[in-house]
Amino acid sequence: MFDTLTDSFKGAIDKIRFYDDTKALTKALKELKKSLLKADVHHKVVKELLANVEKEVKENGVGKENFLKALQNDLTRILTAEGNQGFVFASKPPTVVLMIGLQGSGKTTTTGKLAFMLKEQKKKKVLIAAADLQRLAAVEQLRQICEQIDVTLVADENKTPEQIVKEALAKGEKELYDVVLIDTAGRLAIDDELMDELASVQKIAKPDELFYVADAMTGMDAVRTAQTFKEKIGITGVVLSKFDGDSKGGVAMGIAHQVGVPLRFIGAGEKMPDLEAFIPDRIVSRLMGSGDLESLAEKTANIIDEKQAKQLSTKIKKGKFNFNDFLEQMESMKKLGSMKSIM
Question: Which residues contact 95 (CB under 8 A, 6 or more apart)?
Fold first, then answer.
């Protein structure tokens, strides 16, 4: 998923072979600049990153270890914005989340993915409100998604978005739901009508979180629209959808730093399990080619029951592991997502 960026960093690190080789440092930074700009990282972010890395390396002494350390420190700083990371639950349930974004950004699918993650990994009771009554078949799409992931949906094409939201909140409180996700209407462009409707829904919902869903394929446009939504509505997090289709991955590196809002999740595939929490220090570990065992361990622990795993281990030792057990394991593996997203 971050292959292009990882190759860029590895290539730059390999340029520095000897201690106190300032020529090699200049060459490495030049190479890194070229690669990052090619990978769609914003020029201001690139300039700031390289200036800080160069300063830190020269202060501590030119060398591969110091270069790697400086790169990791500054990448973590750039990827981190003030605010929550991952999904944070409100102190008093239900946690209300407003999903906003432009039409075609993958907002409805992302709402389903988030609901699936909360239900399967966090074991929470989730309710979805279909408040997107602008796009044809948006409600029907949500119906199919909710049926697929077995999550309750509040929808009625004959009501207004405000009425749907009120109904969903009342149901959420009465039936003790942990999370209420509200899928709102998008437009092909930012206009006053969209912002007025969002403001009206926001006033009623009083959300704990406002997630802006941005299409990673749009590159720098994703950053600009996120900034506009932040100014006009106020957002608490960004979710990058269709990230698996953006082989460059540069937009993820600058969006939090430029918008000043944390990047919370990344859509890494088309299937429902393909949504990953964006934790800066773990992402830096992946960018440096070290992988992210912590996230994989968390994901596995949430899906595979410890008691069941012990029973299975006993079965294998006694030679009683059968085909049905194998099928159960395959179903558990499916919940982890694609092998590409795991690796």
Answer: 88, 89, 178, 179, 180, 208, 209
